[in-house]
Amino acid sequence: MFDLTTKYMGLTLKNPIIIGSSGLTNSTADIKTLEANGAGAVVLKSIFEEQIMMEVSSLETRHLAHAEEADYVRHYTRQHKLKEYLQLIENTRKVISIPVIASINCISASEWVSFAKKIQDAGANGLELNMFIMPASYKQKGEDIEQIYFDVINEVNNQVSLPLALKISFYFSGLANMIFNLSVRKIDAIVLFNRFYKPDIDLDKMQITAADVYSTPDEVYLPLRWVGMLSGHVKCDLVASTGIHDGYAVLKNLLAGAKAVQVASVIYQKGPEHIGVMLKQMEEWMKKHNYSSVREIIGKFSQKKIKDPVLYERAQFMKYFASGK
Length: 325
Ligand SMILES: Cc1cc2nc3c(=O)[nH]c(=O)nc-3n(C[C@H](O)[C@H](O)[C@H](O)COP(=O)(O)O)c2cc1C
Prior knowledge:
This protein is of the alpha/beta class. It has helices at about 30-35, 50-60, 65-95, 115-120, 140-160, 175-185, 220-230, 245-255, 265-270, 275-290, 295, 310-315, 320-325, and strands at about 5-10, 10-15, 15-20, 40-45, 45-50, 100-105, 125-130, 165-170, 190, 200, 205-210, 235-240, 260-265.
């Protein structure tokens, strides 16, 4: 018998496989199926600050005669969306026993912050903030962008006492420094990393299209490197996300120091039954290597623990350059 339990953001998970925020976690029925197939926790689909705003502007409010009338429609739409989300938390919590982590996509410390309290009251076990400010403006300094992250954490902590995770991208000029600075704030975990919509160009149709929505297994090396380098140094839990498609990728990230992992693409592609396959792969490996618990594995290969820490930082294929291959 293997002990797969792990402690992540103060919550005890029966195993380290969390279903990441996505359409997979947008209904109580689907979440029940994920739980039945072995998921350790779920992060609900995000409420998007942008999405709420877009829905409002897509309603044709300009024809409304009075400004108050337009305001009412905007307010109603927001409340409605929020109500649905709170209902999802409440209903799901009633019927499942694994932790339910709510998610808000945010880009500022503004209006949505008051939602956080309602999310807590609805019974969520934790809150994940999915934050990304595209550093695309040549006028906006990196430190100004970073300050927004700190402000958001402060504002949310003023509203809630829920375990808090921050899901970020790798678009920071001083990534390790920024992650460390985030980790000393009042947060319980950092999710490394979100994966975004990627623009592509269709050469036949001559138009901008979306690249693949789903990750591939070789994308796992990005979180693996950063989890490995930072897990012994930061002051909060790290959870790996992106490119985790099998039990072996889970194990690698745990060895690097992640307390848990998040998966989305592979569950879209292979269905919820794949959670069981991943857990079985983990157990078989643990048996072969004489591990009885996930706790013994976590961080065994973090940069802090290995003899040659440079292995995580190596960036050039020196051996290949030197041999002329
Ligand atoms: C269809 C789809 C929808 C997603 N929606 C969200 C979302 O609402 N909020 C969020 O934080 N991440 C969202 N994600 C990102 C995933 O949670 C995850 O971080 C990302 O896909 C990388 O993990 P993966 O390689 O296992 O897919 C979505 C991903 C996919 C594929």
